[in-house]
Fold this sequence. Notes:
This protein is an alpha/beta fold. The chain has two domains: 2-218 and 401-417, Glycogen Phosphorylase B (Rossmann fold); 229-399, Rossmann fold, CATH 3.40.50.2000. The protein contains 13 helices and 13 strands. Keywords: Transferase. GO terms for molecular function: glycosyltransferase activity. Residues 12-144 form the Glycosyltransferase subfamily 4-like N-terminal domain.
Amino acid sequence: MKVLHINKSDHVGGAAVAAVRLLDALHQHGTDVRMLVLEGFGDHARVELLGRSGIYRQMMFLGEVFSFVPFEKNRQNRFSFSRSRFGFDISRHPLVREADVIHLHWINQGFLSLKGLRKLIDLGKPVVWTLHDTWPFTGGCHYPGTCGGFTSTCGQCPMLKSPAPDDLSARQHETKEKIYKDAAITFVGCSRWMQKMAAGSSLVRKDLKHEVEQIFNPVDTWLFRPVDKMKLRQSLGLPEGKNLLLFGAANVADPRKGIGLLLRALNYIAQKEPELKEKLELMVFGKNIEVLGGQLPFKLHSYDVVTSEVEMAGLYQAADLFVLPSMQDNLPNTVVESMACGTPVVAFQIGGVPEMVHHMKSGFLSAPGKSKELALGILSVLENHAELGRNARIFAEENFDPEVIAQQYQKLYQQITG
């Protein structure tokens, strides 16, 4: 059985990281698996680049972005909604033609248009689609927030400048409905939260004969593992006698990642426990860290964009806890990685996070948006981070190990091809 994974990139974004990890896990498990991407480093033996020129790829990306500008409510939502008007037709690619199973991941921003998606699905091959966000079952949004339009026909989209019953979201919903009709698609939520949302959508519901499974993302539990924190801090030039908090995201400035809520929590800590100004320091990774400016009450260790998994593991291993102030998220790789390193997580009770972080057992879960409660959670976990970290590691070994996840996907492939 030949399985082809399809994702826009092999290195940019959480979906890319998760997809490549799954690719490696399946290969180690003995599955004949390859990946096709639009852009990447090109140095992975089982990943093939689509082979389009950089200029052509950029044209598709810009075409996709600017085609949405007339519809957008504001610039902040520009990348929260994908129109999928521009993209490539990969249905005749040799890897696609020889595959027994097509496994989709994240395909937006100029990779596959809706027309290209239709041609791929019309090949009649069994399709598995891992849901890294909600776009596959909405009229275009990647996270719907409080909007439940995807359970019916979309329309009246709050992300659009002129919401209406027949707006862009409703038209795209109708197009997807036609594409998915009679298609052999099995959707996989990385979290039970995503699985439940997908199963409740009008595009994926069971009476359309689409199955919705749930399988976690894998993480290399040998690379991401607990180590001697003090020795590691010495090698990284970090203080040995301080409490270190870690926060990071692909884009620190992304409002969905909750940087404003984190700043309020940290300032509350500084006011409530002023002695911690000399004992507590913050480590941050990702682009646009400069948005923090002079707003932090604690010393900052800045790491910009981290591309090395070894370096990334080192940051989790050196920290006493990882804080995730996101208000919308599926199954963040950051939480999976932190727990595997034995570093407890403080987060809001949103998305798939409660399926990983067990309150006061492997971390702390705050009510969504409550920065004061998030602050109290940070203080609470700092008092008992060693024990909570041990519990987090045990959960990661049992649920995120590559062999565990590979077996689950291999079983799924056999079911849909048998």
